[in-house]
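User: Hey, my collaborator sent me this sequence without any context and asked if I could get a structure. I don't really work with proteins. Can you help?
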Amino acid sequence: QVHLEEYGGGVVRPGGSLTLSCTGRSIENYHMAWFRQAPGKEREFVAAISWTGADTNYVDSVKGRFTISRGNAGNTIYLFMNNLQPEDTAVYYCAGPVRSIWSTGTVDYWGQGTQVTVSL
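Assistant: No problem. I've predicted the 3D structure and written it out in structure-token form, which is a compact way to encode the shape of the chain:
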């Protein structure tokens, strides 16, 4: 069983940066993803990374601002978030395994979520 844990949420001003991290058993063997859910909205895909770390995919709204990567051992997933905007405010979830980085499919395991708030 994959038990996912996220770290690194917080409050930041517009234009600021945060880094989220996710750990879990055996995640170095799986394609993994980040999702987010804003208040009153459906959960949405944010970014995904292949098990090798060589391939990534992003939702259009974060391209050029967010970067998903793996630690050297592959067992930590990072989401580097730059130039954060109020519309990025949400609970962010680490999730996986995903079927592919281009079509995540049904995801079996989710972390508990970490709150990211972008506000003046």
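In plain terms: The chain has no helices and eleven strands. You can pass these tokens on to your collaborator as they are.
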